[in-house]
Amino acid sequence: MSTTAARRAEKAARPGFRCTECGWTAAKWAGRCGECQAWGTVLEDSGPGGGAPKTVAAAPTRAPARPISEISVESALARATGVDELDRVLGGGLVPGAVVLLAGEPGVGKSTLLLDVAARTARGGRRVLYVTGEESVAQIRLRAGRIGALDPNLLIADETDLATVLGHIEQVDPDLFVLDSVQTIASAAIEGTAGGVAQVREVSAAVIQAAKSRDMPVVLVGHVTKDGSVAGPRTLEHLVDVVCQFEGDRHSRLRMLRATKNRYGPTDEVGCFDLSEQGIVGLADPSGLFMSQSHNPVPGTCLTVTLEGRRPLATEIQALVAPSQVPNPRRTTSGVDSSRLAMVLAVLQRRLGARLADQDVYVSTVGGARVVEPSADLALALAAVGSRENTSLPRGLVAIGEVGLAGEIRNVSGVGRRLAEAARLGFTRAIVPHASVAGLAVPKGMTVLGASDLARAVQVANMTDNVVPIRRG
C-alpha cells in the first residue's frame, strides 16, 4: 500500500463527531455545535460506515393492521386528575400512556403540584408511584402531611438509578407514575453524569417505552436553563406528548401553567394556582388578584383585560409620574415590558405634547401579574397621562387597545371575550379601538366607546355623563 493510500485509510478510520440535533460533523470534539449553537450535543460518531443505512430484517407483527373505523377510542380518553386548572391545560386530564413533561424554575412549586395531583388520583382508588431523585422520602412525607396529601395508594421511593426505577414500576404496576426529576436519574449502561444529554435521552426513552407498553400515564419533572427553556436535549420535547411550563414570581403566590405542546388538547389554555404554605390551590377566578381594593378613584391607575391564552384576566396598571432629580429620568417597570413603556411614552410626548422628558416614570401591575401583550398599551398610556395631570379615570372604566407609533389605536383580538369578563366583574364603561366597534356584541349594562387615536381616547376617558357613547348595551 502506498503512503497516500495509507494516509487515506488512517483518516477514514479516525473517529469523527456529529451533532445529535442538526447533524453537523467535525473532526474534533467541541462542547458547542458550530451549526445550531447547541451545548452538549456533539458526540462521537459510530466510525466508518456509521452514516450508511443499515438493513433490518422484517419481524413478526404483534397485531395485524385494522381499518381505522374499527379502532376503539375508549382507551385514549382523558381521565380527570381532580385539579381543575391542570385538567383545563391538559385538555380534560391525563390520557393513558401519555407522557407529560412539567418544566419550571427551582422553587416554583412543581413538586407540590404533582404531589397534590398524585394524592387526588390515589384517593380515587388508583395506585400512584412517586419516585424522587432530589429529596428523601422523609422530606416528601413532611410536605404531604402539610398539604394533606396522605393516602395508602400513594407510594413513594427515592432512587437515582434507572434500572431500580424500572424495577419499582414492575413491582408496583401503578396507574400513574411521577418522576421528579428526569435530570437526576442515570443509567449505569450509559457514560456520563446524571443530567447530561446522553443520560437524559436514555432515561426518557426507557420511561416512555414503559408508559406506552403499560398504558400508564407518566409525568416527568424537568429543569430549565437560564433563558427559561427546558434543560437537556431538544429531542426530549419531541418524544413526550405534552410539554407544560410552570411559571411564577417567587415573591408572589400566583403561579401559571401553560402548555407549549399538547397532542391531546389545545395549547392556548392557562391554569392559575395560588401557592401557599398549606399547598397549592387552583384559581377558577384569579382576576381579583390583579386589582387593588381601593374604593376611591386614584390618579395614575387604569384597568385593562388581557388574554392569557383563551382566558381573559382583568389587570390593573399603576403609573407614577414625578419630577426627576437626575439628568437622565428613570423608567422603572414591574410586570410591564420596559420597551413597550418607552414606546408609549414617546408617542405621548410626540403626538399629544405630554412633557415627560424631565419626569421619572414608574409603572407596575397589581398582584404580580405580567402584562406582555400590546392590548394593554392604551391602559398604560391613560395611567401615565392621569398621573401626569393628577386626574383620575371614571369609576368602572376599562381600556383595551394597542397604541401605534402614529398615535392610532389598533384593533386587538378577543374584544368580545374581554368585555364579557369586564362586565362580569362589574365594570360599566370600556374604551376599545374604533375598528372593533362594528358588529361587537356589547354585554348588557356596559357602555362601549370607540377611539381611533390616542387623543380621542384621552378625551373620552375624562368624559362626563352627557357624552354620547358610540355603542350602548
From TrEMBL:
It comes from the Bacteria. Residues 75-224 form the RecA family profile domain. GO terms for biological process: recombinational repair. GO terms for molecular function: ATP binding; ATP-dependent DNA damage sensor activity; damaged DNA binding; hydrolase activity; zinc ion binding. One of its GO terms (cellular component) is cytosol. A motif (RadA KNRFG motif) lies at residues 261-265. Plays a role in repairing double-strand DNA breaks, probably involving stabilizing or processing branched DNA or blocked replication forks. Belongs to the RecA family. RadA subfamily. This is DNA repair protein RadA. It comes from Cellulomonas rhizosphaerae. The lineage of its organism: Bacteria, Bacillati, Actinomycetota, Actinomycetes, Micrococcales.
